[in-house]
Design a protein that fits this description.
mainly alpha, HTH_TetR, 197 residues, Tetracycline Repressor, domain 2, elongated, Homeodomain-like_sf, DNA-binding, Helix-turn-helix domain-containing protein
């Protein structure tokens, strides 16, 4: 009966959001890999059966949580980066600001903590949603080979998760690494115009 009372004034989407909000509070306080469905149900104020009605497994809940934040960050960054025209600067700024937003949010940063397994990296690399968002971002930079963009997007996701799990010395160090190693691979080539004889 507790599940019905919990849902009586909630619509399905709102109930799922309430569960994800409760999970977020737990992720900010604990390693996400150690947070179980019982704890999430308790924090959300619902029964475990109700929780499983919305999320069939812990992996499904984790994926929904990661995708919710990925969408939020993607839309925020799209607005922030709209005025940057140079593809290399837009790429480096997009990655560094993404890293800063994740690191600045305790519930997201915990997914990449060096003390536990790299659960955030695994989730990001398996996520088709995140890969599609990064693909759209890279496509907007322009591409010499549009067919290669999805593969480059997967590589950029790996670079970002690596930097979240094993940060550079500071922001300048990370910008330098991105400029030296990522920009030449990802942005359209800027080959000089051939000389005329």
């Amino acid at each position: 009966m507790a599940g019905r009372a919990w849902l009586s004034d909630q619509r399905g989407e709102l109930a799922a959001e309430k569960i994800l909000d409760a999970a977020e509070k737990l992720f900010a306080e604990h390693d996400p890999g150690s947070v179980g469905m019982n704890e999430i149900a308790r924090a959300a104020g619902c029964s475990r059966a109700t929780l499983y009605r919305y999320f069939e497994s812990r992996d499904t809940l984790y994926t929904a949580y990661v995708h919710r934040w990925a969408n939020t960050l993607y839309h925020e960054l799209t607005q922030r980066l709209a005025a940057i025209e140079d593809p290399a600067q837009r790429l480096v700024t997009g990655i560094t600001e993404s890293l800063a937003l994740v690191r600045g949010n305790p519930a997201l940063a915990s997914w990449f903590a060096q003390t536990g397994p790299p659960i955030g990296a695994a989730m990001a690399e398996r996520s088709d949603v995140i890969t599609m968002m990064v693909t759209a971002f890279l496509s907007a930079l322009g591409a010499d080979d549009p067919e290669a963009v999805p593969q480059r997007a997967r590589w950029v996701v790996r670079v970002m998760t690596s930097m979240l799990s094993f940060p550079g010395r500071d922001a300048d160090d990370e910008r330098a690494m991105l400029t030296q190693f990522v920009v030449p691979v990802v942005t359209p080539s800027r080959a000089p115009a051939p000389r005329r004889a």
